[in-house]
Specification:
Layout (H helix, E strand, L loop, with lengths): L9 E6 L5 E8 L4 E6 L12 H6 L2 E6 L18 H12 L4 E6 L2 H11 L4 E7 L11 H4 L2 H12 L1 H11 L18 H7 L2 H14 L5 H11 L12 E7 L7 H10 L3 E6 L7 H12 L1
Parallel strand pairs: 3-4, 3-5, 5-6, 6-7, 7-8
Antiparallel strand pairs: 1-2, 2-4
Helix pairs in contact: 5-6, 6-9
């Protein structure tokens, strides 16, 4: 049985210099080695992949609501490379030293952006089941839906209109719309994990909290996904651990292969028989690699 949980030891907010609120949680050994986990899309601070493995590794795990998710206020017009500024404020507030940062799924690009913009704050980086830049991964543009291609073109021509179109397309996420995410199969490997009641309960808590403010955070992640990132993979200088599941039906293997080939100091591990939710079952191995 896994030990995924949505019940943190610490659940607080801070006030950023521009007046926005930012929410974070802490898990594991609160006197241990800090590790930051950046959630996917949609997602929130309310998730630890394996509480037992976190405790056993002596890790103080921090999770953070990105702008528009959970209890973190939106950052209007914010781009991918703006987010590291929010993290720096939190790290200063909590006196967090340079530490490993893991991005799960859509969180991967935020982990890499943090490594690029604030290299003195990040010792090692992990990207888990994460997509690479849409405009660089071979075949990624072709895999976009017609709607996403249209939105990308609109963002290029008129950013304000593109942002409005994205916000409109995520209106379904209001209220209880988040529940539809669990209405269909995630793939054989992930469905096996979601059959465990504790995992399903924790995952639902994660996504439910992500919808607290409606689609604001989800739409911002969509922009960050399809728009150019603003930096190159060769500009990331930390050691980067790249993990993927060989049965992942959410993010194709081409993304992991691209990241491994493009980041100078990187390693790639594919977990056999694993889907997109593999951090739940492989968290201990991931932490061991990072520390």
């Amino acid at each position: 049985m896994t030990k995924a949980t949505a019940s943190p030891k610490v659940d607080r907010t801070i006030r950023l210099p521009d007046g926005r609120q930012m929410a974070y949680c802490e898990w594991g050994d609160l006197d241990g080695t800090p590790v930051v986990l950046l959630h996917g899309s949609p997602g929130s601070r309310l998730f630890c992949p394996d509480e037992q493995a976190t405790e056993g590794a002596g890790v103080r795990l921090l999770t953070i609501d990105r702008p528009g998710y959970g209890r973190s206020d939106p950052r209007p017009g914010g781009a991918l490379l703006d987010w590291p500024d929010d993290f720096i404020e939190l790290a200063d507030e909590l006196d967090i030293p340079p530490c490993p940062v893991v991005g799960w799924s859509a969180g991967g690009k935020y982990a890499l952006a943090l490594g690029f913009r604030a290299p003195d704050r990040v010792t090692t980086i992990g990207v888990a089941g994460s997509p690479g830049p849409t405009d660089e991964v071979p075949g990624a543009l072709d895999d976009l839906s017609t709607h996403d291609r249209d939105v990308l073109a609109l963002l290029t021509r008129d950013r304000a209109a593109g942002l409005a179109a994205i916000n409109d397309s995520f209106a379904w996420f209001e209220g209880d719309g988040w529940e539809t995410i669990f209405a269909e199969s995630w793939g054989v490997a992930d469905d096996r994990l979601l059959d465990e009641p504790d995992v399903l309960e924790a995952m639902k808590a994660l996504v439910r909290e992500s919808a607290r403010q409606g689609p604001a955070g989800y739409a911002a992640d969509e922009v960050a996904w399809i728009a150019p990132w603003g930096f190159g993979m060769a500009d990331v200088r930390q050691l980067v651990h790249i993990w993927c599941g060989d049965l992942d039906e959410q993010v194709g293997r081409a993304h992991a292969d691209y990241l491994a080939a493009s980041i100078p100091r990187s390693s790639l591990v594919a977990f056999a028989g694993a889907g997109h939710l593999f951090p739940i079952s492989h968290w201990g191995e991931m932490l061991a690699a990072l520390l």
